[in-house]
Amino acid sequence: MSIEDYIADLDQRFFQNQLSAPFKTELKQLPLDRKDVLEFVERTFRFMHMGKVSAKDISLITAQALGTLMARILPGGWEGKVPPVTLPGRHIAMDELLKNSEFGQKENVDMLDIGCGFPPYTTLDTAKLFPNWNITGVDPSLPLYLLYDDQGNYATLDENKQTVYFQPALPSLENWNELLSDYEGTKRRFEALLEELLQNPTTCRYALPRVEINPILQHETAKLRFKNGGIGQVDIEPQDVIRCFNVLIYFDNPFFERALSWFSDHLKEGGMLLIGANWTGSSESYYSIYRKLKGKLIKSEFAFSLDCIAPFAIIPWYANHDDDAQTKELMDYVSRIRSDDAFMQEFYALHDADRKRLNICARDENGYYGGPDPNMGPHAMWGGIVSLLQGLNDAGLNTKAAEVLKASGLNVTVNAVGHVSVAF
Ligand SMILES: C[S@@+](CC[C@H](N)C(=O)[O-])C[C@H]1O[C@@H](n2cnc3c(N)ncnc32)[C@H](O)[C@@H]1O
């Protein structure tokens, strides 16, 4: 099948042939020889269809990410490993939520951040906010060597001095593409740089390029420690709070269920478990909250930020398995909200004007959400995405979305951080 036929088939099955020409052009970059990428794209479209997301409401930036980035950041692009992609400030709303929970004002709360990624930015952010908590970050990919090149791009390397992972200094689409256009070459370049720096170490702590050996140790304090390991594979005493973010999106539902059982065994009575996903500045957040009560793990809430109904990145659909229960649940709520015409008219009136004002993926002349301004740097764009969500919440659209869901028979409120929260 040609790439054109492949795209036409997806367009017909999921969007009634309504995808725009620029969107389809971006998709033409998809590698037809990567089964995992094609399956991912089809799954993404199936979830969009489930959420009643129309072709006009999918930003062109999504097609750009699907067309080029996915092949590079899916586990299939990293020899099957889950890449430790992370960002500082990613869990700002999740931290705020904890601050507002019954644990927020307590001292010596034991918290586990599992699948914390590397560098463990999000764990460090949380430790800064709760200096009196005992926080443990756990990840199977904590490296022996952390290497920065002269541009600030970094790589992690194992004890055999083999590159495990690398990431651009600023993980924008363009920067990823630059590093990943020659995957093997970039790996070799980092491995050669490691040899060079081990022979001629730099003395300045922040010099570029530089190598850090066993870099996780520099982050440890009396209240913050890190362990190598994963769900079901690490020895840890029972915790008050467990957070597992942007990890279970890589696994199937049987693994998710086994993980729940392991979390239950590692939570104290009354403990809280947060499982979900999000993107920069806690945009596109969704998560389930569980409590351990009378020895049992009970799901108490499913919450999401309102930008999940018309996202910029692809987090709300980023599932690596068809049976991803959290994505299905999110798409159920998204479809109920998107089916309410009066709500959507109000949403578009505000949000489309804000996209135009901030110049972030505004509608084009044919009414399709467009792509990013190539002159806008990633930080400016991410900041804009966070303000767009704030704009929706400030206008009370999160409360109105909660009303829509309530009218469909659910028990819904807006939680302490402005997320629409379905209670059970
Ligand atoms: C996308 S990163 C998420 C990092 C961070 N939690 C965040 O939200 O930014 C996913 C992390 O999950 C880790 N991981 C992979 N398999 C795991 C497992 N079985 N248990 C725990 N973590 C795992 C990977 O090493 C990777 O660092």
TrEMBL record:
The reply to whether RNA-binding figures as a keyword in the UniProt entry is no
Residue ranges of domain CheR-type methyltransferase in the record: 240-278
Question: InterPro entries this protein is in?
Answer: CheR_C, CheR_MeTrfase, SAM-dependent_MTases_sf
List UniProt keywords, sorted A-Z. Methyltransferase, Transferase
Query: Entry's Pfam families?
Result: CheR
- What Gene Ontology terms for biological process does this UniProt record contain? methylation
Work out whether the entry's keyword set contains Cytoplasm.
Answer: no
Q: Report a single Gene Ontology molecular function.
A: methyltransferase activity
Protein name per UniProt: CheR family methyltransferase
Origin organism is: Algoriphagus namhaensis
